[in-house]
Design brief:
The structure holds 2 protein chains of 2 kinds. Chain A is an all-alpha fold. Chain A has a single domain, classed as Up-down Bundle (Cytochrome C Oxidase, Chain A). Chain A contains 17 helices and no strands. The longest helix of chain A is centred in the C-terminal third of the chain and has 37 residues, at about 460-495. Chain A is globular and about 65 Å long. Chain A starts with a helix and ends in a 15-residue tail after the last helix. In chain A, about 55% of the residues are buried. By secondary structure, chain B is α+β, with helices and mostly antiparallel strands. Helix content of chain B is about 15%, strand content about 35%. Chain B has 1 helix and 10 strands. In chain B, the strands form 2 sheets. In chain B, strands 1, 2, 3, 5 and 8 form a 5-stranded mixed beta sheet that branches. The longest helix of chain B has 26 residues, at about 5-30. Chain B starts with a helix and ends with a strand. The chains are: A mainly alpha, B alpha+beta. At the A-B interface, helix 7, helix 9, helix 10, helix 11 and helix 13 of A face helix 1, strand 6, strand 7 and strand 9 of B.
Chain lengths: ~550, ~170
């Protein structure tokens, strides 16, 4: 009896203490992310300046070298490091980390750092101006590919540690459901592992031997197909940590409860299913893939509309329920009860709003035929600056405002909170201008990933350049936002007053419906994921191999090596 | 698993519109033939001239019938080869009467290129070993810039040509 009573009194949310050495691990990952933000942001600033046509780069630096740095350091380095640091913090808080696991996590960190430095040096020496997609047959220096492979391997080790953390916790808590956030981290790392196998195979089997000269030629279409098998789940790997914060952290910040634990889990499982067997929608205008298979993957792509609708409903249901509990009246009175002056809420909320046009743009991009109008235009750049650079980044900033002081034993002061609100507004203004101009210019046909050019002075081009000017203005505002964010990061890490900050994890309603036990059936989820991947890729992949043209020799000249 | 009543309504409406949407996309693709370009036609990437269409004399604009044209393009870093005019100069502008049916065929001699008649849906990836082709009706008069919209190296932004659709 006594035991049962004790169990009952346990809080429904696991909330473990995080020790100093753990904090150091998590902060190391997050710090690399913020250093990357500054460097990558500076590159972005240079790009919009050059594209305005009013500036040229000094000392023979190539536009595409800067573009490669921007893409690699923001798209691959910043995101992966921040996400792994956030994953570890969530796991440490909800299921705990052993000393052995912590040491393994450090191994992951250093492998990733070595890989990042190798890649960075290769790019800085102009030996890898191949952009972050490194499409064959442009050949970078082998160190570029080896560095990238190390970053991926390091991230796998981090994921394996996360799985081990949950497995040990489950052993110690046999009949309990896994904590929601630990479940979500596991979904994201499982997805990351399955997806990055594709790019790992491309890099290890195709690119490294070919760049070293051991293999004479490379199969271009297979390398692209393997890249995009990875490339789309990559964007969900960025998005899902933001969803973790929306589902399980924001409700606590606004003083509410989780809308539905099982709904949150279901939406994550659906993301696992429908993030990988969809890569062809990035290859719709390619000549070598059967259009029926393209269409099948387009249909699978659109299945993510379902978890997205579920997420939107959950978010606004939480907002409304919480507002009404606080005494809001009328149809929209709850809206005023939201903590608008709390940057931990405001920044992610703006991110959620940005996801509405971002998602709508995504529907256009993946729409089989409509894709031809915008493929590789700067519309696409505008699209992912809304989704990853606004939705995801503002949510990551929102997380940083409590996570960094929590890990550093400091306080988010009202002063920093105010700076944060200003930062979020600057970001919104800058991005609206820059991304808006990119969308319009893209619809007019202007290409992405291109240095300033008048293209022989065509009528259309003179129209484009005005929008590039607008992008320079938006980009400059965004850079101010980046400098302010890095200042806030330094302040929160080293100078904010000592104190205790809350690690906000929302609880379920007291009378919440129990979560079905089948959610813990990982074999089922992974089995369905693999089955969907095999269904979507096996036949077209065999077709691609069977009808392959001769492979391509490496090209060094076009990238200026 | 419990779902709120409003959420059921929301999801039924959402998924319903998704089904309608995908049906329309599929109808366009399979019944009206608006699939994105992919014909799986291969070519020797080291010798694209082995294909009749990409022999030097066949590059550029060819009239095949009243209102029917073929444009063959050999792409390489950083140029679209549209053949030579009578004086032996490289063609940079193609002129097509409005309302013509035009078949664009492109192949690359080196790396991956893009081929986009800017502002239209003539937008193809051009990859080593494959022929990219797309047939369209040029309905709107105007001057269109053809841009390479896939990064192909240091001179990527200097790779262009022009299409004039005249009344």
């Amino acid at each position: 009896m006594e035991l049962a009573k004790k169990d009952h009194e346990q809080p429904s949310v696991q909330s473990l203490a995080i020790s100093k050495p753990e904090s150091r691990l998590y902060m190391s990952f997050i710090s690399v992310a913020f250093i990357s933000l500054l460097i990558g942001g500076l590159m972005g600033l240079l790009q919009v300046f050059i594209r305005s046509g009013k500036f040229t780069l000094p000392a023979g630096i190539d536009y595409y070298q800067i573009l490669t740095v921007h893409g690699v350091i923001l798209g691959l380095v910043l995101t992966t490091y921040f996400i792994i640091g956030f994953h570890f913090s969530l796991m440490g808080k909800t299921v705990g980390i052993s000393i052995k696991q912590r040491k393994t996590a450090w191994v992951a960190f250093w492998i990733m750092v070595i890989g990042t430095i190798m890649t960075a040096i290769t790019i800085l020496f102009g030996e890898a101006s191949v952009l972050y997609t490194f499409y064959a047959p442009l050949r970078a220096h082998p160190a570029f590919y080896i560095g990238l492979a190390l970053v991926i391997i390091g991230s796998w080790i981090a994921g394996f540690v996360n799985w081990r953390q949950l497995a040990l916790w489950k052993k110690a808590h046999p009949d309990e459901k896994s904590p929601l956030l630990a479940f979500m981290v596991t979904v994201n790392t499982v997805m990351w592992f399955i997806a990055s196998l594709g790019v790992a195979v491309a890099v290890l089997v195709q690119f490294i031997p070919w760049s070293l000269g051991y293999a004479e030629t490379i199969n271009v279409l297979i390398s692209r197909t393997l890249f995009w098998y990875f490339g789309h789940p990559l964007v969900y790997f960025w998005l899902l940590p933001a969803y973790m914060a929306w589902y399980a952290i924001i409700p606590k910040i606004i003083g509410g409860k989780i809308f539905s634990d099982s709904l949150a889990r279901l939406s994550f499982v659906l993301f696992l299913f429908f993030s990988i067997p969809v890569g062809f929608h990035h290859q719709l205008t390619e000549p070598g893939i059967d259009p029926t298979w393209k269409f099948i993957q387009v249909v699978l792509t659109f299945m993510v509309v379902i978890p997205s609708l579920m997420t939107a409903f959950s978010m606004f249901a939480t907002f409304e329920i919480t507002g009404r509990r606080k005494g809001a009246k009328g149809l929209f009175g709850w809206f005023k009860k939201l903590p608008w002056k709390d940057v931990r809420f405001l920044a992610p909320f703006i991110g959620m709003l940005a996801f509405i046009p971002g998602g709508a743009g995504g529907i256009i991009n993946a729409s089989h035929q409509m894709n031809a109008l915008i493929h590789n235009t700067i519309w696409v750049t505008g699209h992912f600056h809304l989704t990853v650079a606004t939705t995801v980044m503002l949510t990551f900033f929102g997380i940083s405002y409590w996570l960094i002081p929590y890990l550093r034993g400091r306080k988010l002061t009202p002063n920093i909170n105010r700076l944060g609100i200003i930062q979020a507004i600057i970001w919104t203004v800058g991005m609206t201008i820059m991304s808006g101009a990119m969308h319009i210019e893209g619809l007019l046909g202007a290409p992405r990933r291109s240095s300033y050019s008048e293209y022989g002075g065509g009528e259309q081009v003179s129209e484009w350049i005005g929008y590039q000017m607008a992008q320079a203005i938006g980009g400059t505002i965004l850079f101010i936002g980046i400098v302010l964010m890095v200042y806030i990061f330094i302040k929160l890490t080293f100078f904010a007053p000592k104190g205790e900050e809350e690690f906000p994890i929302a609880e379920e309603e007291v009378d919440a419906q129990p979560t079905p036990a089948f959610f813990e059936n990982w074999k089922l989820w992974i089995g369905i994921t693999v089955a969907l991947i095999l269904a979507a890729y096996t036949i077209p992949f065999i077709e691609i191999i069977q009808t392959s043209p001769p492979g391509s020799v490496p090209f060094d000249f076009p990238i200026g090596r | 698993m419990h779902l709120h009543k409003f959420e059921k309504i929301w999801l039924v409406c959402g998924i319903g519109s998704l089904v309608v949407f995908l049906f329309i996309v599929g109808y366009g693709a399979f019944w009206q033939g608006t699939h994105p370009q992919s014909h799986g036609v291969t070519i020797d990437p080291y010798n694209i001239e082995s294909n009749e269409a990409f022999k030097p004399e066949n590059l550029g604009l060819t009239k095949v019938d009243d209102d029917k044209y073929i444009v063959n393009i050999a792409a390489s870093a950083f140029n679209y080869d549209l053949g030579k005019d009578e004086e032996g100069n490289a063609v940079k502008t193609i002129r097509i009467p409005k309302g013509s049916t035009v078949l664009f065929q492109a192949a690359t001699k080196d790396v991956v290129h893009g081929f986009h008649v800017a502002g239209t849906n003539v937008n193809m990836m051009v990859e080593p070993g494959y022929v990219s082709s797309l047939e369209t009706v040029m309905d709107n008069a105007g001057t269109y810039t053809i841009v390479c919209n896939e990064y192909c190296g240091v001179g990527h932004h200097m790779m262009y040509a022009t299409v004039e659709v005249y009344e």
